Every structure is written in C-alpha cells, then in structure tokens.
Amino acid sequence: MTEKTDHKFWHEDGNIIYCVDGTLYKIHRYFLKGSSLGITLPRNKDSMDEGLTPDNPITLSGVEKSDFEALLEVLYQTPMAPSDALPIKILVSALEQASKWDFEEVARNISLNLQRREHKELNDLVAVIACCATHSSLFSKTFFLEMFYQICNHTGRFSSEFIADLNPHLLSAIMEGREIVREATTGKWLVTPPPWWRFQANIISRMPFGQSWDD
C-alpha cells in the first residue's frame, strides 16, 4: 500500500506522480524533459490516467528511495551546475540515477562538479572512484588516477561494508596499489609516494574498465 508522505518532493502543483519503495512523489514533468522517465508516459496504454492520481501512480521498481530523492535533489536545485553544498554521497547517487534514466546533460554536469571539488575523506574518495569506474566516459583518466593515488596513500582503514560493496576489479587494484606504497617503505606509509608511472603501468593498464579512456 502506498501513501502520500509529508516530504519536500510532494508538490501540490506537480503534474506527474511516481511511487518508489512505497512513497509517492508528485513532481513536475518539466524536470523530466528529454529523459527516459519523461518520454514513456503513460506506460500503461489501458490506463491513460497513470501517474496522474495518487491511486494510480507510475511505480518504479528496482529503485531505492534514497537514490531517487538524490536525483530529485539535483533536478530541483541547479541541474546544470550542481551545488557544492550537496554531499558527495548525494551527487554520486544522483549521477547513478541520471545515467540510468538518460539525463545525459545532468550526469555530465554532476561529473564535472565531482572532478572540480576537493576530496579528502576516505569514504568520499571511495564513492567517487567507484563512480568513475562505472561511468568512465564521464570522467578523465587523469582524475581517476588522482583519486586512485589518494586512496592508495590514505592512512584510513576500509570498513567491511567497503569491501563488500566495491567492484571486485577495483578493490583488487586498490589493494595492490596500497601494497605498492607499503612495499616502498617496508611496511610504513610514505612521506613521498612512489612514482606516478607505477600506478599507471602496474594497475590502471590491467583494469578492464580502464580501456575506455582515451586521454
């Protein structure tokens, strides 16, 4: 059973209603222009009022509520230039959804935001590099290498959730990169990291998702 909830993405003047994970969202079609969310309405030919009333919303399966709200957060703020005030986690989730639903320009602008910002926290670094690996066409190889380099030299420890969620190819490469750092200092973290080329030659060139980069 679904019900309207008192949240920021129920707009009384909205003109399309979605249901995600039991929550109803009444939003404006304008923000969906050009995406696969906006060009397939109505989905049910036998129900022309689909998405127009709370009793007959368009149900999106396989979408987490938090991810959908992250996308709406960007769409309703400044999709052409996402705010630096938005947390990295929100931007990464929004980029995933923007790519899924063909918001091509929005996805591109989120990637530009992520590449412009400074990332220091290990969780942010990991989230961003995982996003790079999944959507390599939206990021430069130079940026990926910088993120990878920072992670390999970060003194923080990875949580079990990190190990469970990360792409196994990327996890393997990160662990090997961190081992290169340890190896160069006989088990201690470097003050001056090993040469940049070692990461390119020994790690990046072996990674299957790295083959799509041209720069």
How would you describe what is shown here?
By secondary structure, the chain is of the alpha/beta class. 43% of the residues lie in helices and 7% in strands. The protein contains 8 helices and 4 strands. It has a 4-stranded mixed beta sheet with strand order 1-3-2-4, with no helix packed on it. Helix 1 crosses helix 2. The longest helix is centred in the C-terminal third of the chain and has 17 residues. The radius of gyration is 20 Å and the shape is elongated. It starts with a strand and ends in a 13-residue tail after the last helix. The mean pLDDT is 77.
Helices and strands in order:
Elements (H helix, E strand, L loop, with lengths): L2 E2 L11 E5 L2 E5 L30 E2 L5 H12 L11 H13 L3 H13 L5 H13 L6 H12 L7 H6 L2 H17 L11 H7 L13
Parallel strand pairs: 1-3, 2-4
Antiparallel strand pairs: 2-3
Helix pairs in contact: 1-2, 2-3, 2-4, 4-5, 5-7
Features:
single chain; 215 residues; alpha/beta; four-stranded mixed sheet; 8 helices; 4 strands
Radius of gyration computed on alpha carbons: 20 Å
Which of globular, elongated, flat, extended, rod-shaped describes the shape? elongated
Class from helix and strand fractions: alpha/beta
Widest sheet: strand ordering: 1-3-2-4
Separation of the first and last Cα atoms:
50 Å
Tell me how many strands there are. Answer: 4
Overall helicity: 40-55%
Order of helices and strands: EEEEHHHHHHHH
Instruction: Note poorly predicted spans.
Output: none
Sheet with the most strands, sense and barrel status:
4 strands, mixed
Binned strand content: 5-15%
Mean pLDDT: 77
Count of runs of 4 or more consecutive helical residues: 8
